[in-house]
Each structure stands twice: as C-alpha cells, then as structure tokens.
Give the backbone structure.
Amino acid sequence: MKRHGIFLDGVMIICIACFGLAAGLSAAEEAYPSRPIQIIVPFPPGGVADLVARPFATALEKDLKQPVVVVNKTGAGGAVGMQTAAVAKPDGYTLMVALSSISVMPEVDILFNRPPTYKLEDFAPIALLTADPTILAVRKETPWKTVAEFVADAKRRPNEIKYSSSGVYGTMHVAMELFTHAAGIQLRHIPTAGGGPALTALLGGHVDCSSIGPNVAIPQVKAGALRVLACWGDKRLAALPDIPTLKELGYKDVEFYIWSGFFAPRATAPAAIKILREATRKAVNTPEFKTAMEKMETPIAYLDADDFQKFWDKDAKRLIEGVRNIGKVQ
Amino acid sequence: MGDTFHHLLLGFSTALTATNLFYGFVGCFIGTIVGVLPGVGPLAGISMLLPTTFGLDTTSAIILLAGIYYGAMYGGSTTSILMRIPGEAASVVTCIDGYAMAQKGRAGPALAIAAIGSYIAGTLSVVGLMFLAPPLARFALRFGPPEYVSLLVLGLIVLGYMTGGSVIKNLAMIILGLLFGMIGIDQMTGYFRFSYGIVALGDGIGIVPVAVGLFGIAEILATAGQSDRPEVMKPRFRDLIPSRQEFKESWWPIGRGTVLGFLIGIIPGSAHIISTFVSYAVERRISKHPEKFGKGAVEGVAGPESANNAASCGALVPMLALGVPTGGIPAVLLASLMVHGINPGPLFIKEQPVVFWGLVASMYVGNVILLLLNLPLVGLFVNFLRIPYRILYPTILMFCVVGVYAVNSSFVDVGIMSVMGVLGYVLRKFEFETAPVVLGVVLAPIIEVSFRQSLAMSDGRYSIFVQRPVSVIFLASAVAMILLALKPLIWKKSGFRDQLTEAEKSG
Amino acid sequence: MTLDRISGAFLFLLALFVAWEDRVLPLGTHGHPGPGYFPLLLSVLLGILGLLLFLRGRSSAHWRSIRWEEAGHAAAILACSFLATFGIERLGYRITMILILGFLFGVVERLKVWQVFVLTIGLSLGSFWVFDSLLRVILPRGGFGF
C-alpha cells in the first residue's frame, strides 16, 4: 500500500507541475489579446467619453475577438481614472478613452504646486475618435445676434455678463477663457458641478451665455430656448452651417474641441499597440459605430496615432496656454 | 384633458405589448434586486445594463432602464427594515423606524406599508408627471443658486425638529457630515481640500460608502458579537399584514410624502435622500405622538418611503420635459435616449409621443408589477431574518464590499466604508445619531457651492438673496418657523420640545 | 468622566484640527468666500458645540457604562473589512473574499468544516460570477491573475 501511495503522490506532483508549467508557458506565449480588455473611462456614465467609448468597445470586440469592457472610474474631474490608466500594467489589457481635459490637469497641478497626478508623456496615443468643437450659446432673451455685438456689450460693461461652466479649469471654462483672452473682454465666471448643471443654469436664466458641446445644445436651439453665435472649430459645424467659426471672425488660434481619444500606457509593447491601431481603424469604419455616432450627432474625426499625436500636441499647447492665462482663481 | 387621455391610450398600447411588458418586468426585477443589495445602487445598476440596451428598440430600452430606477426605490427599504442596512443611500431614514418595527415583530407590516406607500406615491407622481411636466419643469429651472441656499436654510430649520433630545449632538453630527462633504476638490477654485494627496479623495467622500459604512458596517460591528440577540420568531401570516391601526396611521404620511417627495425631486440637483429626511421631520413635527418616532412609528416608514418614490419620479420631470439632466441617473437615461438617436429637448414630448407616453404608461404598469412583486415577497424576506446571524453577517459584509467597490471600481471607497463603519460604531456607543452625518455629506456640496455661486453671480452682494421672489418666500418661511419655535420662550408655555423631552424621559 | 464630556472634548479637538488644516486655503472675503471660508466657519461652530457638550456633560452616563462585549468580534470584522480594502486589487476579489469569509466562518464563528467550505467557496465564487460575468462589472483579478 505504501509503495502505491508514494507512487500516486509522485504522479500527482508531476501532473500539477506540468499543468503549472503549461499554464505559465501559455500565458507567456499566447497571442495578444488573449484575455478581456478593460477600457477605463475617467468620467461618469452617460457623459461624452462614456457615450463614445461604449459603442467603440463593442466595435473593437468584433475585431479583437475578446470582450472589451468599459470601466467608469470617476473623480477629480477625471484625474482619478487618468492616473489609474497612467500607472496601470502596460500589458495592453488596460486602456483608456479620455477627453481633451487630459491636457489640462497636469498644468493645473503645476499651478497649485502639487505633485502631478500624471504626465501627458505617460500615455501613448492610439487614435483620435471624435472632435466636437464647442459653441457659444446665449439665452434667447439676450439682445446679441452676432459675436461683434456680444463683444461690444462686454467691453461696455466689463465683468457683468455671466457665463456658466462645468467646473473650474474644465472644458467649458478653458474654452471661454481662450475666447475672452483673445477678444480682450472680461466676463463673470460661474462654475457649476458639471455639464448638466451648467446647461441648467443657462436655460434657467441664471447666467447669460456658455460654451457648450453641440449635441446637448442643438435640441435647445431647435426649440428656440437658446441662440448660437459662434463655434470654436476649425471649420463650420455640419449641423449648424450658418454659424461662423471664431477663427473666421478673426480670433486666431481660438479653437477648442471636446475631443475623445484612445490611449494606452506609454510602456505598452509596440506590437500590442500596432494591433490596437489596426483594430481601431477597422472599428471606426464599421457601420454600427458610424450609426451610433450619427445618432448622437457626434461626428467621427478619426486620426491615427501619429496624426493624433501632432493634433494632441498642438491642442495641448493651446489649452496649457489658456490655463496659464487663467492663473489661480480666487 | 381629452388630448392627454388619447395620448395615454397610445402609451398603454405601446407599454402593454408583450415585448415591452417583458422588458418592464425585467427592469423592475433587476431594480428590486439592485435595491435590496446593499451598496449597489440604481445608478450602478443602470450603468451596468446600459450597453445591453443599445441593441433594443428605444421605447423598450428606456422602459427597462426606468424600471430599474424606480424598482430600486422599492427594494431599498427591504434591507433597511430587516437589518438596518440601507439597500441604497436614500433608504437610510427607513432604517430608523423600519428596523425598530422589525424588532417589535412588525417587519411584515413595515415591508408591506413601504411597498404600498411606494406604489401610491409612484402612481400619483406619474399622474403629476403626465399633466404637469412642462410647467413644472419650467418652474424647476428657475431654481438658481440663491433659491437653493434659501431652501436649504429653511430645510435645515425644519430638520432641527427631526429629533428631540440633544439638539447639540444632532447639530454636531450635521456639521461633521458637512465637513466630510468638503473633502475633495473645491469646485469654485480648484483647490484640493483635506485630501492629503490621495487622488481618489479628490472627488470627495461618496455618499454610498458613507451610508453603507455608517449604517451597514456599523450595524454588523455592533450586533455580531452580541450574545443576547433576540431570536426572531417565525411570523404568522396574520403578522405579515399591517393592522387596521397601522393602515389608518399611514394614509396621511403617504399622501404628504408623495407631495413633498415629488416637489423636492423636481428641483434639479436635489438628492432623493433629502426628501426622505424632510418627510420624516415633517411627520414627526405633525404627529400627536412624536415620542413614538425612533421606536417603531409606522409614519416614519410610510412617509419617507413614499417621498423616495415620488422624488425619483419627480427627478424625471425636467429631463423629459426639457432635456435637462438634473442628476446622475437622469443623465444616464438621457444618454440611453441619445444613443438611440433621440435628443431630448423641450420638443421631446411633442416629437416623440410614442417614446414619452410609452414610458409614462410603462411607469403605471411598472408600479403595479412592483407592488405585486414585493408584497408576496414580504413573507419570503421576513423568513430571511431567521437565518442565523453568524452566517448572515459575513454575507452582508461581502455584499457591502462588492457593492461599494462596484460603484467606482475603487478600493478607496471600500476603505472609506470601513472607516465610516468604525465611526458609526463609536458614535452609537457615545449615543449620537448617525443619520444626520449622512445628510450633512449630501448637503455640503449643494449648500456651499450654491452660496458661493450666488455671491459670484451678484459680485459679492448679499442682497441677491432677497431680490428674487422664490428665494424671499423660502427665507420668510424660515424666519416664521424660527419665530414659532421661539414662541414658547416668549409666552412661557411648555412648547413642543419640552413636551417631547418630558415624554421621552418618562417613556 | 461622562460620555458627553469625552465626546464634547473630542469634537472640540477635532474642530481645532480642522481649523489648523484649513490654514493653507485662502479665506477670501465675505463677498467672495474662498475655499477655506466654509471649513473654518464649520470648525468654529463645531468647536462651540463641542465646548457646550463638554460643559453640560455632567448629567450623561459614565463612560464605564458602555458595554464593549462585542468589541473583539467587531475588531475581527473590521480587520476583514480593511483586508478587503487593501487586498481586493492586489490579491484579487475571489482570493480576498475566500480569506475573509473563511476567517469569519471558520475561525470567528467556528462553523463545521464542511459548512465553512461550502459557504466560503460558494459565496466568493458565486458573487464573482454574478457580478463579473453576468453583470459585467469587472472585479479585480489581482497579481495572481485569479
């Protein structure tokens, strides 16, 4: 009996060893991706980044043949999720979809003499997905019909016209500040807790104007509650072809996009990034993704990694300049 | 009127199709589970299921998600009553008298009254939504920062009546909660306050870890080791139904809770939990036997639970009528509509009658489904109490951990929950109420930000608070209530507070 | 030394602490309050309340009247809760839960071995399956990949 016992023990040990070895080897050798992929979205569900990331994740699944799950990790204007993605294991299984505010936060940290929560260099851009320019919306009761009238009125009574934003140093704040700096006017800034409250404040008449994203503004414009004076884009919006861009009106370099981009930690293997780039290119062209974005009136503005990096650098420079101009708000 | 009726018929024809009935049922079912599980709240539940609704028809999708939303309000009271653990943050107040009722063997009636009250409130609020959505929404928009401040001042004074006995202790707890609420990034200037470099604290301490920690974890910490826990007897069927007396005492609180909850829910940015606190305070103030509260007064369950459900419906009013998201959950519901190509705005009701009226009709149906789902389950849930506590509490701990973690995939939240658990345990030992802390955490951002926004709007002039009509009304009511409270001091007759303290000393 | 005196003193000290921590934040003016304004205001109020509680505290119960019999138990549960906090991402959800539940069921409650086994494995893996696979809420898999 004892001999059998030792023999069986030995067999068991060898089996377990082989199993472990096989598991270890397979983990090392399997092609990427071989496990579910996580896309971190540093913003709450229902927001712009989330609404772009979810159909995108579904489209990616088809090409990568692995589940791609969106994980919302909110906090501190997005800093929490961005920091998590920056320090995540660069094995290609943790990625991020973030908005243009990514460029702003490290600069704000510098402004406040805080150690930065992350650095822009921590991320390798994979692709730009969408890029909505913001628009200047004013209440219908206000008298301004053009930007020129608006600016003239603002110069007559500085610090009287109020605008709402989604939070200090947020997208709506920086966008407006870029404009006011270029136009040489002073407006009164009323920060709120987010895009929703900012829109509510505008609709309720508690502020006079705001720089908001087109897809929430357009239904209100159609219903007559708001009027649009200009847009912060490079070209006119397809949905609002009569609205001039600030660039056209002579405000050079006043461009602001609420763009969404797909990122990976910088140290991720180039092979994995190549696969992701290719998959993204295919995903963005799928009819399902196109329809989803159309339905939300968010035009796809796909740029592959290298072009995206150039776009990002230019955009970041503008935003960082804007934050420096704002300085510390008291 | 005839128009509305016509539209409603259209809505019912949509809502009562087999597909939509199915999705409505699924939504209500999941919502109930989400509500029952401590930690996981309706926002988490809706977000989890949002992707699966992308492929569905628009009306079905919104029916499903809305079902989860108000279904969670039904389920939230279950664990509050049975175990003093809030199923979701808004059910904290139900823990107080609901659990006390359960301790007296009246868990069944408590659950039943909660379900019935929720049904009545839910149905009546849908009626309100149906008829009054556009004008109410426009009124709601006129709530700006100064109105919030005045309303909250009034609210805090009303809440001062919430508990008798030590006013000092309750005030201290509210202030403690307010201080907790100030941790994190300051919205107006971008400074980080009291966050000690932990980025996850940058957004502040969430309401879910605080509520689950102070009530859930603290509860098991205090109860698990106790040797003299009363054994729960098997309830007879008769004990599951509320007595006639309990019914009688519940009608008015349900009615008042519905109106209060609906009105508070409409206000953009108000958390549902505020409506439950206000309802509790009002019921206590109006009651002829305020000393009952805290010891198992059915009004303390009927009012808040109704307010809860009415508020969740009220929160949909601005979203549906104007396309304005007034909170996390309406924002996600809006998003689900946007994904289907519908951009809700002021014209939503006119342009998309099928979706709107289908949703309204499904809410009637959903409330019925939930009532039918929850009432029979009362018997099942009460039996839950008979599981030996030694097996129950580790399970509760597990659900709390996973529920709190799932909200934001953050282990820091689990840590906050643990710390709050210790705090709740210690507070109980030192005879402090923990509910006001939760209220403080919820109110802190609203009060402070609104106050500073108001001053930003007026460029530093305090006159803004008395320049706007709605704000003046609230402030005047607040002054009136203070004077009423001071009346006994002036007239030297024993006032409400003295009667209360006397009754408590003898009772 | 009564309960109220202890809590009053503690609240007062807490108020001092908050006010001290608040010193780095700009106060602003009454017309334009800064980030430090409200916390300071609240800490002053809290300090006053703490002081009041302390001064009136003679009539409350003596601190020895607190029953601590369940404290040991509570400490064990608390340890598990903190283990969950730090372990859930490093060790992975399932391993952490198995450790916690195994500890509570087996060591603290001393259930029979088969009961411990069934409950621990069942609840850990079961809840993971419900949340991770059914509801698609990603629960962390920890350094071991499990």
